[in-house]
Specification:
259 residues; mainly alpha; 12 helices
Length: 259
């Protein structure tokens, strides 16, 4: 086999592998949303137990599983631009293993959000046991809603939010700075990228406790919002607009709690 033929074969293999990665991501997101729709329509037993504070540790595990499906389905679309840049860089450095390392990067990113699901599930469990959530995972307390909304709004103006968002908005700069070769290296880089994303969006995801962790419309809106924050120019100050909106919303809820 000539060198040119070998190069073409490697490039063809890389393109096929990259297509498989994209297909896999699309399938995971689609299955996640289908599962959430199914849960929403049929009021899945695992969420019913969590909302009622029943089911022992099995109910807590089910709540955690629900959060994992929800976070992966909501957050994977937002990392598409970064995965595209990673796949390009991986293809230039090592076309033979680029598809595998790209898949490991996605896995690392997902692991960061799975880690976030642990405190989120525990929080839902405790709120449910205190009868502070409806069966759809929405707050029944105006005071709790106000605290979550104002806290999420203030976080939008924080230094941590700005620092994490700057890395998410500049995937090429982040990847060049954090690059590690090999599958294990890709997993670490993905985990770090996912950690930045969690740092940007953890408070936004907490607002699901106000609108309902089973509210499909709000989940879709928050998915679009996360994607928009990473794509739109920083000068638009979308984060500040969202923060001001949450604070105003929280103030209204606080007035309702007092009255």
């Amino acid at each position: 086999m000539t060198a040119m033929s070998s190069t073409r074969l490697i490039r063809s293999s890389f393109r096929s592998g990259r297509a498989a990665v994209w297909a896999g991501m699309a399938a995971i997101v689609a299955l996640g949303w289908i599962y959430m729709v199914h849960m929403n329509v049929h009021m899945a037993a695992m969420h019913g137990m969590a909302a009622a504070g029943e089911g022992g540790h099995g109910g807590l595990v089910a709540t955690f599983a629900m959060w994992v499906v929800m976070m992966v389905a909501m957050m994977l679309p937002s990392v598409v631009p970064t995965v595209s840049v990673f796949a390009m860089l991986a293809g230039r450095r090592s076309p033979r293993s680029a598809a595998r390392t790209t898949a490991m990067f996605v896995a690392g990113y997902s692991l960061a959000w799975i880690g976030y699901c642990v405190p989120a599930a525990v929080a839902q469990w405790e709120l449910a046991r205190a009868a502070l959530l409806t069966s759809m995972g929405a707050s029944t307390s105006a005071a709790v809603s106000a605290a979550i909304l104002v806290g999420a709004g203030l976080f939008q103006f924080s230094g941590l939010k700005n620092a994490c968002m700057s890395r998410c908005r500049s995937p090429l700069a982040f990847l060049i700075q954090e690059w590690r070769d090999g599958a294990a290296g890709a997993l670490v880089v993905g985990l770090r990228n996912g950690s930045n994303c969690v740092g940007c969006c953890w408070a936004l995801m907490a607002v699901l406790f106000v609108v309902g962790t089973m509210n499909l419309l709000w989940m879709a809106l928050f998915t679009l919002l996360v994607c928009a924050e990473k794509i739109v120019p920083a000068r638009w100050r979308l984060d500040a607009v969202v923060g001001a909106g949450f604070i105003a919303w929280g103030a209204v809820a606080a007035v309702g709690a007092v009255l």
